[in-house]
Protein 1
Amino acid sequence: MVLTRRRRMRRTGVVLVALATAAAGLGLAGPARAAEPGVDPAEVTVVLPPGGTTDIAKTVHTPIVPPKPDVVFLADTTGSMGGAIGNVRANAADVLATISGAQP
């Protein structure tokens, strides 16, 4: 059977979506989590006068890093992200080392 380029691309896209879905499902079957991901408290209501300020203590809960995660650093190179790209370049190795060090 001869497939046109469009049909091959569509089939490839379907296969990639299926693989991504399967990979996501495998991640859900991993080790038990200490806390559900999110921010605590999830909501805060404070009435402030004009110009007033307040401090709110928040805790961010993240999922446990799965063993051997794939880590990808993406950055926009259009020019408007120059400072952020420099920050990524300067800190990527440290971020990756921290993630690798947290592996079971």
Protein 2
Amino acid sequence: MFGLAISTESEFKKLVFSGLGAWVLIQVVINLGGAVGLLPITGIVLPFISYGSSAMVALFGGLAIGYSKL
């Protein structure tokens, strides 16, 4: 997602792609930080790994919007 944000010309698209990338990155950092004991355990699912149906639908929806390149 960050690669798409860098390569696009539109400021709106840069913000959307950066936001989607940050959304996934923050979930990964919090989940892995909890797994290794650096952060408290939360209920956030690990993207593409954990079985959370509503979180998975939202994640794939966001990625579909991102990769359609608006």
Protein 3
Amino acid sequence: MFEIGDHVVYPYHGAGTITDKVERTILGKEETYVVLTFPMNQMTIMLPEEKLQASGIRSVITLDKVQELIEHSLTLKPAQEFSRRDINDKHDKMKSGCIFDCTTIYTELMLKKKHSPDKLHIEERKQLDFARQLLKSELDFVEGLSSDEIEEFLSMQNREDTSELPSS
């Protein structure tokens, strides 16, 4: 499974590092807990090792997947008019921990913001900021990806001319 030092993504918390494994006795039952540290929100949590799979934790993506994210984002169009249902759907997608869902939300809202900057509802602005944080937290742990390349990826969602996009 996961080892100390592995970089993982915990849905809705972003990417972090497994910093320790500890034994704890709770209600008379001894269990091994994995200690996760998340730099994005400066939080440390402990999860039972036996429940890691069910929690949705996954490994951080690889450099190859970044290229797939770029290609995926090129197919997207601006988000539609605001609706409470869309906000709830986007919220559920971000909770899933899927980086493609997060990229979709981020890109669609960035495109909507670019085409009509005053049209983003406050909830959409919050989701745009949170999706950016989640993406950045994971991309920060991708081996072979510099901070400049991460910023370029995040800012390219705002470009009209896709010929300027980075190629990994």
Protein 4
Amino acid sequence: MDKQPSVAIAVAPIRPDSIIWSENNKIAIISPSSIHILTPAITRRKEKSSRVIQHTVLSSVDQPEARRYDAVENNEGPFMTAYAVYNGFKTAAWSPVGSVVPGSCTLAVVTISHQVQLYQLQSNMENDKWELLRDLTPLFGSPYVLTSHVLCASWSRSMDNDPHHSSILALGSKMSHVSLWCNTLNSERMFTYKVIEDSDAWVTLLEWSIWYKDDSGMVAYLVVAFSNGKLSIVKVSVAQQSITALTIKTWFEKDTRAPTVLKITNSGSHFKVAVAKSSSIHIATFKHESGKDLLHEGDKWYSIVLPITTHFTGKAGMVWAPNGDSLHMFAGEYTNFSLVIQSEKLVVDDTITAAIHAKTSEMIRAQAVLNAKKAKWESKQNESYRALIWGVSPSPNGLYYSLSYTLVPLVDKELGDAGFDSYCGWLRDVQDSEQLESTILSTTINGWLQDGSQKGNTKILDVIDYVATNDGGESILNLIESLKTKCDAYGEEPQQLVSNDHLSRIMNGNPRNNTFKLLYYINEHVKVMYSSKIKAVEISEAVSETASELAKNAKTAMTWFYTKTILQMLLRANDDDWRALDHTQLSQILLLADSVLIWQPLTESTIPLVTELYQRVQNLGLGTTSQELQMISEVQTGTRPVIELNDLTPREPCPSCQQMIPLASNFFGICPSNHFWERCQLTKTVLDTPQVRSCRVCRSKIKQISPGPFQLILAACGSCIYCGSTF
């Protein structure tokens, strides 16, 4: 990714943190008149699309006429009764994946006239097209209330193990007010909280910690920076579908310099807070312990005054290194520093600083040379320029940084009065490759295995791309083999079911299944890299074949895990529920049991389950399953080596001619009249309706939910059963 050329953007941003990178790999760059949304392409699906940047612009002039200008009444004087404020863009924040719309990130935009709008990528579009999803401004009530004067926004991370991926949008306004909004907790109301008693404290910056489990629910810490220099930490608690807030402490009571940049680390029970005030940087470490007060370690802030100009104020960016040990800072007039805490002091790490400076200079100079060539200047030696850094944001996994910057060519006889050109470029972290790879892989993989949902997929792909670029795929081979070893070590732990469980919640909560899912997902990406021959990424045939074989085994294991869980949940139903099944619904259940006899090894794990199901049908008088029970008994005694496809009774009529379709394949069904039907990869029934969910990654197809025995089980299953991608 760092080898890609910078992408031009139309207008220079105006403030720090003007660039933000979402969990699902979208980069937004905010300027007063437009928001540029870029998608760094990691793989290609079609010819000539490798490494292409999708470039989408949200423009303020595209808004409806009523929203372009905000009429503000003024009754204080006789000469000006009203005036209009141009409704451009002020700032924005990405939601986590799935917190508002399943499977994607929503962009919260704050306009210059203090409106708050949610934008969402339209589904089923060939090209990126963003639309206004919701205007949150009316939730503030009157435009004259203090909380309606919104200045900044920050979206929290998703709450752990929440099936709705709940998160909270924080909005800062004047007179120290913060408003909190959650899509899953009374979405028609803003929770308003006054952080401190200070009428001069306007909230200008907000940052969230991760969520922690507490005795009463979930807890996160919101760091709030004010225009008069103060900084507070607010404890936000969510319990029993309600939100509460409590200010823990306020610092910098006498330092009235306004904070310009605020950053927080997010890993484990410890988190670090960094705040920039003019040329000073302050860092503190905090620790969360369940049931206890937030601990401020050492009860001190580590500070340093950097030798930079006032250009840092209003034009800069900071980002924490992936391990949280160092803070990379960029000043507006291109100057950078990397800060670390050593011997109880905050100091500049000259080695990392020089390495980042070299990488950034190389990126910026390459763009300057490219500009010179495009202009066909006679003297290619004269490439003098000034670079202004406007913001920096890390990729979802911390491997890369995106920078928004402006090139200002120096005026001379050859260049003339060249205009300002703004760009978005990419850097790779400068830490030791092996150390970085180990840290990122372990953090990303372990997080994915614990969660198993689609929100980690982009991080996984980025890690694979990074590893393959650097060593030709050998680390990928080591990775998938280590995952296979991890799968074997897990074994088949008995699944404890409760009556209100949904299939997706059970699947995502099982580390063994998530490991198999990850193996399959990685293989799909490896196949794309191998077949596409992406530049700088060389995947050998041996690596591709090994990945494919392990993925095949993983898919078989996952199919049984899903099938077993579905059958267990069906068997938990009472006899009255079984008697209420019609012929079609009962046939669907028996078809699923038949698939186990054919495509799963008949072991101590599989035989008792299918035997119990066939006996349940027989005992309730719902059908005749004596043939199936006899075949299972013969397999157990050794008189029958295997159950063949032709031994099973066809369960489904052909939707076209009503002839019975034999269970001849796991993927399709063909009736005696040669009508061809694809099968649902979850329930094995033929797909006789266009209402089908197709995975965009591995192309698996699942029938849409309809009333029947699978309705409750599958109701919350919104992602692919194999790779976790959203349908």
